[in-house]
Amino acid sequence: MSLFITIRLLDFIDILLVSILLYKLFKLIRGTIAFNISMGIFTVYLLWLLVKALKMELISTILGQLFGVGVIALIIVFQQEIRRFLIMLGSQYKLHRWINFEKILNFDKEQEKAEHSEVVEIIVSACKEMGATRTGVLIAIQRKANLNEYVETGELIQAKLSKELLKTIFFKNSPLHDGAVIIHKNTIVSARCILPVTDQRTLSPDLGLRHRAAIGMSEMTDAIIVVVSEENGSISIVRDGQIFRRLNSEDFSKQLYKQFEEE
Ligand SMILES: Nc1ncnc2c1ncn2[C@@H]1O[C@H](COP(=O)(O)OP(=O)(O)OP(=O)(O)O)[C@@H](O)[C@H]1O
Questions:
Q1: pLDDT category, 73, cuts 50, 70, 90?
Q2: Which of 36, 153, 157, 198 might form a disulfide with 215, Cβ 3.0–4.6 angstroms?
């Protein structure tokens, strides 16, 4: 047996990839309850190593059994985080851009752009007016990921998107004003939808449930979420767990266009 450990270039790449994955994972769960759970598991793991080294048979067998089913338990406990992590990898590195499905399917980019600008114009104009009247708004715009599970929590509308319809839905006395509206292309798919609330604990305390639901939705899906605050009429855009707050009309429009372009 050779006394020298041979390290290949591939081993470096291996270590680098694991470091990147761990860093991304850390960034994703930092400040959430998942971080505390991970720390708990890590502590139990250290304890297991210690009792094994001290040859304390009973406790080390019990902890060993626990880690035996650990992978399945981890998948169940971290189901949401694993999902978010995969979505983040997929959206951040934009694999579909390299593969370019649109080109393969010969998708008409010009038509898509025209559709986007119609949707952006309607949403910007409606939100500006609703902001001025301090009307609370929560809109999730579907991108690649299917939003059916959230659509089903609300009332199906399936109507062509228009400024007046959006304003009617979010009007304070409307029975549909509570919750979120989900839009796909130029259709209002449903209203009164319940979105997942983020469990990030480092968010600004002035962000209430409407904004937290917007952030939660953006962590779970690649949807673009628009929020108008009922409290102060300010407009925010949320994507990939990131919130762009208090946008003026010009920035709101620019940012919304940018998010549409950024697949
Ligand atoms: N999980 C959810 N999914 C969809 N909508 C939600 C959810 N939770 C709360 N909302 C909406 O947010 C409203 C409450 O907003 P809240 O005042 O707590 O939030 P906020 O972020 O402070 O917003 P605002 O600035 O408009 O007050 C609810 O009436 C409801 O319409």
A1: confident
A2: 198
